[in-house]
């Protein structure tokens, strides 16, 4: 299962948008705005593939010179719990570390907190509502 950075606007990026829509947005009756997708031009786009079919993805958005935010982690439903997400997290952390970031943060859906805690993330703050569902701010120092 190769994991790699992909280019904004590429065929792989279009697959990424479709996966994120199916897993993260459609169940909440949400879509992506053109502006939202345009802002991702500056993000680090990461995806796992089997041949040319996307299995999972995430993106990293710079917050400041020390901190990057993991966003839009999605894995095909049939592959959840099989290590794809953990492999994506590991890859994303290594990319962030290689680029000099010291901390990775995220807004984790309440249902995903256990997954991120297993990867060493800690809740940092109170529960809040984002896209109409409960989230927690989570963070991890990158060594």
Structure report:
By secondary structure, the protein is of the alpha+beta class. It has four helices and eight strands; from the N terminus they run βααβββαβαβββ. Strands 1, 2, 3, 4, 5, 6, 7 and 8 form an eight-stranded mixed beta sheet that branches. It is globular.
Outline the fold blueprint.
Layout: E1 3-6, H1 11-25, H2 34-39, E2 44-50, E3 53-62, E4 67-75, H3 84-98, E5 103-109, H4 113-118, E6 122-123, E7 128-130, E8 133-141
Structural class: alpha+beta
What is the typical, i.e. mean, pLDDT? Answer: 95
Total beta strands = 8
Low-confidence segments, given as residue ranges, are none
Strand fraction: 35-45%
Q: Given the structure, what is the number of helices?
A: 4
Helix content: 25-40%
Alpha-carbon distance between the two ends: 25 Å
SSE topology string: EHHEEEHEHEEE
Radius of gyration, taken over Cα atoms and rounded to an integer in Å: 14 Å
How would a crystallographer describe the biggest sheet? 8 strands, mixed
Q: Rough shape?
A: globular
């Amino acid at each position: 299962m190769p994991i790699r950075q992909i280019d904004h606007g590429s065929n792989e990026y279009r697959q990424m948008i479709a996966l994120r829509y199916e897993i993260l947005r459609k169940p909440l009756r949400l879509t992506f705005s053109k502006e939202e997708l345009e802002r991702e031009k500056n993000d680090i786009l990461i995806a796992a593939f089997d041949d040319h079919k996307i299995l999972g993805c995430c993106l990293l958005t710079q917050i400041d010179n020390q901190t990057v935010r993991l966003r839009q982690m999605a894995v095909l439903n049939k592959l959840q719990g099989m290590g794809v997400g953990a492999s994506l997290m590991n890859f994303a952390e290594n990319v962030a570390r290689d680029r000099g970031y010291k901390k990775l943060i995220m807004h984790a859906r309440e249902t995903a907190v256990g997954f991120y805690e297993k990867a060493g993330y800690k809740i940092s703050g109170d529960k809040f509502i984002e896209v109409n569902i409960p989230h927690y701010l989570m963070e991890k120092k990158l060594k």
